[in-house]
Automatic annotation (TrEMBL):
<dbReference type="Pfam" id="PF09550">
    <property type="entry name" value="Phage_TAC_6"/>
</dbReference>
<dbReference type="InterPro" id="IPR019056">
    <property type="entry name" value="Phage_TAC_6"/>
</dbReference>
<dbReference type="InterPro" id="IPR011739">
    <property type="entry name" value="GTA_rcc01693"/>
</dbReference>
<protein>
    <submittedName>
        <fullName>Phage tail assembly chaperone</fullName>
    </submittedName>
</protein>
Length: 67
């Protein structure tokens, strides 16, 4: 794969997996193909930097006990 999209993989999924003809496949937008393949749009994956930001913002603290 070079660059952004895995075209051979997408073509296999669309034409073999979904049974699309080439003209149908190429008429789709990437978003339409993703929808047909059941790929849900969602938040991006957690990165190490984002985890570090959250840990700094919400540090673990021992629970204080009274008594």
């Amino acid at each position: 794969m070079t660059g952004g999209l895995d075209w051979p993989g997408l073509m296999r999924a669309g034409m073999r997996g979904l049974g699309l003809r080439p003209d149908q496949f190429w008429a789709l937008t990437p978003a339409e193909l993703a929808l047909m393949l059941g790929v849900e749009a969602g938040p991006p994956a957690m990165t190490r930097n984002r985890l570090a930001e959250l840990a700094a913002r919400y540090p673990d603290r021992p629970t204080e006990t009274s008594g």
